[in-house]
Amino acid sequence: METIINVNNLCKTFKIHKRGTGFKGAVKNIFHPTYEYKKAVNEVSFSIKEGEMVGFIGPNGAGKSTTVKMLSGILYPDSGDITVAGYIPHKQRKEYVANIGVVFGQKSQISWDLSPLDSYEVIKHIYKIPDKKYKENLERFSELLDMGKFINQPVRQLSLGQRMRADIAAALLHSPKIVFFDEPTIGIDVVGKDKIRKFIKTLNQTDNITMIFTTHDMQDIEKTCERLIIIDDGKKLYDGSLENVKKGYVSSRIIEAEFESLPITLDLPHTEITDVENNAMKKLISFNTDEVSVNELMTALMSTHNIKDVSIREPEIDAIIRDIYEGKIVMN
Amino acid sequence: MKDIISLFFAYARTGLKTRFQYKLDSVISTFAVFFREAAGIIAMYLALLKFDTINNWNIDELLFLFSLIFITYGIFIVFFMALRDFSDWIKHGVFDRVMLRPRGLLTQLVLCGADWLAAFGHGTLGIILFIISANRVGIEWNFGMAVYYIVVVISGVLIQGAVFLFFSAISFYVVETNSLKEIFYWNMRKFAIYPLSIYNKFIQSILIFVVPFAFVNYFPAQFFLRKADMAAYPEWMMYISPIVGVGLYALAYAFWRFSLRYYKSAGN
Amino acid sequence: MSTYLQFAVIKFRNKMAYRFDYLLGILNTLLSFVVYWSIYKALYGGASEVDGVTFSMVTTNFIISLGLSSAFHKNEMFLQDKIKQGTIANELLKPVNFKLRMLFEDVGEGAFNVAFNFLPTVVIAAFFANLSAPSSILNVLLCLVSVVLGYIVLWQISFIVQSWAFWLFNVWGLITIKNVFVNILAGAYIPMWFMPEWLRNVIQFTPFDSIYFTPVQLYLGELQGWEILINFARQLLWIVILYVIGEFCWRRGIKKLVVQGG
User: Fold this and answer.
1) pLDDT digits (tens, 9 = 90+) for C166-199
2) Can you spell out the DSSP letters for A90-129?
3) Residue A21: closest CA among chain C residues belongs to which residue?
4) Contact residues for B143 (Cβ-Cβ < 8 A; gap 6+)
5) Contact residues, chain B, for A90 at CB < 8 Å
């Protein structure tokens, strides 16, 4: 397959106004402002092939959304090259963006007071979508995303999941070659998330659309992507198969337990107890299922303590990143 | 061009549809805008009942002067509303969306922002004032006059559009520009309601050289009315509104193009 | 104690951070004044007085009425926002009288603006606009009292219109219309002396002239003896009447909220 996105040594630095503290600082601010420079994206390179579906993950402020904004032509890079589908996004914005679709999980592109259908009509005009193609796409997405019930209702009456589905359809009406999803499942319930993931996966397979997916939610990635790019502190930390990362994180678990009495001790190798802020009775116990089974751990805990409440936490992106730094996950 | 017009109507349709979701509120809001703007006229009218003229301008001539402000502003908010509220567009990430669409940035901003109800409020007021005053001020309307009137209205719209295009470009560097707008647009507009000649030299220079509201209504009105206070200014000033409008807009546009690359999308 | 001191320090710093906006606020008030000052200067055209009203009286009238109306400007969508966001129910559960709290917050803001926006504007304006000197210390004090009473009249009118948010989708339009009435009829855009006779007769029966015009007259020493008492009595009477109307709207609104479950 052909390469469709090529990014080379991409950099972007933001100038941040640094506020002085106290009275003197406030006065100084007015006459002599000082700035701090933050490298949001630092020498990032990667390339993506046509039809690939790539998960873009990293903690908050890692630079993933800045990267996506440069890829989609919203921000000017400071240095480095970007070519997407043969265009340089920030230089050929108008021609380029006709080829892409962008879905922002937190910023809807359809009007609050109108029905999705009303907004689609405007989109049809903006993108100059031919009648026939518009009709075909609308019918198809409306069916796949199960929008029949609400396509004529004002958006303000829709649930978050419904609104997101309507938004995804809006970004696809002009048949883009590449689609960026920025946190498309944020705040949506489990059933809703699943519908969206399935749709995205199907579309990627049937239409050969290249997709880039930024998210906090590892489940999103797991259910959709095969390739993963991890960004931390502006740098590319990992670029490779999901499988490879999965091996590490699937086995690491955290149990949150609330005890009825003190002291709380655990005499079991390969486990680690950490405190929870503001609650002495609550502890986090991290362990690795390769070394300790849940069964073993629970037996050990319950034989010595009375437990009031217990829950298992999903592994978080932070944990994966820690594992990469510690060399437990290696790029392949 | 045909395509641009059809896009304009697509936006207008949805814009009106949005407003008519709340019919009673739209009617009240439109009336409120109309009434708020009429307050200045009421104050002017009441004062003139007592004093007859201000710097030799009678009430009809003042209304003619005033009508240019409303007519140009009524058209202005059809096309430049998005630029007027541009800092909000940046703050709420709406401009990101504009950048993601395969149309010119200003084309989209100019076509999609229209606040039709406010435009109706201002425009109606302007037209009513124009109809009342245009007959009584003794202008002998002919074809040339009518054409020049249309030209100065367009120039007035462009001048105000240019002022807000400057503000919008400034929003790329510092997002919050409300105070600037307050000082350099809204307060200047309050001044422009009355004849330029009543103000001191400093304020006059600002209205001529900095925020050239004088070319939106005072000098164009002088072309039609030829009042004695025009003697204080060079005569050619009555004719250059179109140059000021186009020139200022071109300047503002160049500044906007230059500033665009400094756009920092919200949330960074 | 040190915690509270910390609050004060933070507040102070916040104010400093907005210093630019604050200076522009003074400039705004000043510019509004300059517009009307210039208009009346031209209208007077050098005449020393018109109908027994001197130009400096007019100037003084404008600085007080326009200056105060700008200082007393506040967020009038407050109640509507609380209702729309649904937080009003929580507010009502707190052991604080909501309406009183609203009044005091606004009074605090208004007092700050009078001290740090209105007074600086007056001082700057005094350099170019020959304002009338107060007729006596006593009159200044009486004027201050009537400014406070006038503020309460203004606040209650605003509260009544704000409380309609319980029934209407959006009160912005009505608030705007109300402000036009207040600014014209209270004499902020045209001095009361120059209103047509019939309009003044109508205004006599409204609360509007007790907002700014009573303070202006007291400052200029236009009122004597009994007239002073009558004017204070009028201000108080309007406060009572408006309070009753405001309470009525407020209670009906709360009742509606409770019945419909917010």
Assistant:
1) 998 889 999 999 999 999 999 999 999 999 999 9
2) TTSHHHHGGGEEEEESSS-SS-TTS-HHHHHHHHHHHTT-
3) C13
4) none
5) 261
Counting the structural domains of chain C, the total is: 1
Assembly ipTM:
0.89
Q: Is A12 helix (H, G, I), strand (E, B) or coil?
A: strand
Position C10 scores a pLDDT of 60
Looking at the partner chain, which of C38, C41, C184 has a beta carbon nearest the beta carbon of B39?
C184
Range of the structural domain that residue C180 is part of: 2-260
Q: Which domain holds residue B213?
A: 2-262
Please state, in angstroms and as integers, the Cα–Cα distance from residue A115 to each residue in A57, A119, A170, B142, C41, following that order: 33, 7, 12, 49, 56
What is the rounded average pLDDT for all residues in chain C? Answer: 88
Q: What tens digit of pLDDT does each residue of A118-174 get?
A: 999 999 999 999 999 999 999 999 999 999 999 999 998 899 889 999 999 999 999
| Beta strands at A252-259 and A307-313: parallel, antiparallel or unpaired | antiparallel
The total of structural domains in chain B comes to 1
Q: Which residue of B has its CA nearest to C31?
A: B187
Residue A129's closest CA among A92, A96, A88, A172?
Answer: A172
Q: What is the DSSP letter of A87?
A: B
Beta-bridge partner residues of A284: A256, A274
Q: Tell me if chain C has a CB within 8 Å of the CB of A23.
A: yes
Q: How far is C19 from chain A (nearest CA, A)?
A: 9
What is the set of domains in chain A, with CATH numbers?
50-227 (3.40.50.300), 248-325 (3.30.70)
- The CA distance from B113 to B94, in Å, is 12
Q: Considering only CA atoms, which of A122, A129, A149 is closest in space to residue B18? A: A122
B154 part of a folded domain: yes
| A14: β partners | A38
- B268 part of a folded domain: no
Whether residue B267 is contained in a domain is answered as no
8 A C-beta contact, residue B265 and residue B96 = yes
Contact between chains at C180 and B54 (C-beta distance less than 8 A): no
Answer yes or no: are the C-beta atoms of A147 and A191 closer than 8 Å: no
